Amino acid sequence: MAELIDSYNRRIDYLRLSVTDHCNYRCFYCRTKAGDRVAGNHDFLSFEEMTRLVRLFTELGVSRLRLTGGEPLVRRHLVDFVGQLEKLPGLADISLSTNGHLLERFAAPLKAAGVSRVNISLDSIDADNFRRITRNGELQQVSRGIDAALAAGMAPVKINMVVMRGVNDHEIESMLDYVLERGLELRFIETMPVGEAGRRVMDLHYPAAQILQRVRERFATQLVPVKGGRGAGPARYYQLANGPARVGVISAVSRHFCEGCNRVRLTAEGELVLCLGHENRVSLREPLRAGCGDDEIMQLIRTAIASKPARHDFLRRDKSHIPLSSMTSLGG
Ligand code: SAM
Predict the structure, then answer these.
(1) Which of 106, 134, 162 to mutate to test the pocket of ligand 1 (most atoms within 8 A of CB)?
(2) Spans of all domains in the chain
(3) Of residues 201, 121, 133, the one with CA closest to residue 170
(4) Which of 49, 97, 145, 196 ranks highest by number of CB atoms within 10 Å?
(5) Does the predicted model carry a pTM greater than 0.90?
(6) For the domain bounded by 14-330, which CATH number is listed?
(7) Each residue's pLDDT tens digit, 272-292
């Protein structure tokens, strides 16, 4: 069985695939008001091209795939695409990251097609604050999407909350109550200086250590690190000592987790992005369209993986190495 091992002996078995740059929300920390700095006109890979690339990644040992964006649910025929991916023998897990706005309609068909679990971005449970953060989002609609994901049997349903000082940090406790009532998993995320919008909000950065302190105080309890709970992802999980619930934090900036990084990203335009914190990327669209064979493309992927940076360096004062393209084109 082939494996993708980078120069730091990390095994890459997880691909985040952005199926579109387009998004129906305009979260202020993700996109600038003027829009995104996205490359040229949108020449996205077709679903056939994406399926071929995912197949090649699985032949190289990638077994887990997350569909992201932009907002993946705004791309037409996504359910059929999942049906094609589901047939790939090497793919053990297909998951989805979404803002939840269209999930009420798509949760059941996506689950039936092969999406086993979902992460939903939810930065506020106050309708007005939610609208301010997303610039046009409808909390009720997302809430119905969450219910639909649970009803469809997606498990786990995880809520991702980017915590920002003075924007939504006052909602840490109410968000905890909200997720615990509904049996959801919660991950608090630190802002990252990715893209123009991300760089601008770094003064709102709210460190994970402070978030955890708030959780301890809210429940008057200790937090016990969950052994092995970190899984292959970036979140560190903590069990509330006096109850069954657990919370996760993604402390991308204050405490990086690059030594265990197992992932690469593929943009909707077919660029293989090796690290969220570095501009290094390799276009797979051109060789694909130039008629290169599977072996040639797999070799390109192997060579690219060998150049995966050791770590993101988000804290470096000079941020010129960090991508200017927004999270919405990188897929988060
Ligand atoms: N539209 C989908 C969604 O809402 O989950 C997928 C794409 S979105 C870019 C993926 C994730 O990136 C979201 O959870 C979002 O909150 C997060 N994100 C965007 N900009 C960020 C930033 N500057 N810092 C931290 N997280 C960010």
Answers:
(1) 162
(2) 14-330
(3) 133
(4) 145
(5) yes
(6) 3.20.20.70
(7) 999 988 888 999 999 999 999
